[in-house]
Amino acid sequence: MSMPPVLSAGRSPSWASAVLLALLYYLSARLGMQLFALQPSNMTLIWLPFGIGLVLLVRHGWGALPLVLLASLAANYPGLSGPGWQQGLLHALLAACGDSLSAGLAAWLLQRRLPEGLQRARELGAFCFYVCLLPALLGTGLICANLFWGGYLSGKAAMQLWPALLLADSLGVLLVYPLYQAWREQGWPSAEEWRWIVILGLGNLLLILLAFNGLSALLYLILPVLLWLVVKVRLAGLHLVLLLSMLALMAVAARQPGPFRGLESAEAHLMLLGFVITSALVTLCLGLYYRQLQLADSSRAHWQSEALHDPLTGLLNRRAFTPLLAAEHQRVLRTHRPCALALLDLDHFKVVNDQYGHGVGDGVLVQLAVLMQQHVRDIDSVARVGGEEFAILFPEASAEEAAQALERIRLALAAKPLAIDGEQIAITVSSGVVGYRGGPQSAEDLLEAADAQLYRAKHGGRNCVMLADEVLPAA
Description:
Alpha-Beta Plaits, 2 domains, five-stranded mixed beta sheet, 15 helices, 8% strand, elongated, transmembrane, EC 2.7.7.65, GGDEF_dom, diguanylate cyclase, membrane
């Protein structure tokens, strides 16, 4: 079960991790300005700090908002400082306020609209609109207005820059927050997953390098590689490779045009961001949908297992055992290879319940179930078909061979009392077994024949195995 991203100062795991996240915010901002900035506009193609700021607030609550402000201020000041340090500090502070406002609004909308985080594919649209676009629209709008007011950009340049900043901020959330959530819910990938992460991650890096060095068409193979990962690793590993692949793509694109010719134009900037965002959205959507299918299959298998197994002993119940017996009956008719059916019943079990209570009685049933499974083959099927009555189906076995297994069970149970809740419970079991090699008898006839042998055992002194002559095929 995922943890809802409740914003609360008391929920903070530790302020050391908050400071580390704030430091990561600053470093990712400075690194982004160096690696992902297009020249001569100095526009950053991807703004990871937006996603990191969201994670910081989701993880530590509103009390961490000053850390977002300080980290953004420190990151923005070098680029906005000019002849007058006061003016540079003012506009850096305004930019930091815009960054903090967008991160805070994203965290608040995430809590209101998706209190459990991004869990299902159908929630991706709401996540993009409320958590990515709306907060980024406000934050980047304030930043562009600040750049225009400070004289850093003309009005036209600021308006042209706004859509690209909006996409860059949204991309930062799309790549960072799902990775954080998946990592928190699932933990570290397994060793097998790490192998796929490394192999396919390096494969994407190679595709990017080749695409920007003359083989442009290879760029479009990045998405199939990511989709291959969908079925190979859990979401945490998928999001990690997605993040690293998109970062590598942006870093290379910032230095050479490659498939995106004319990157000095605003249209080309948006084309590049559109490609990356589309790749991220498709990967996220299919990853979430595939996880939904896995959870649905797991849930279906769980409830099917619950419906077909006894909740106390974990053995098959009558509902599951009856079709197994019918299928085995048909197999014998086809192949004329034998099977045997046994019914077992605990002796004087009512006395145990009356003397020690039903809790101890349940313990007896559980230990008998374990004992039976220890003394039969893997291909044999053990079921609890009544209160203290059990059935065992022995494929490819004669009645005599089945009787030997039943005798081992009887001797093991009679050898020493069962230790249950500090009580020593001495109890025995009676069994009846019948064999079948094909013939007119139905599966129900086999049950009646085994029950008749069990009746003989119960009325012949108990604590014994009664064996019927095998039913022969009709002449």
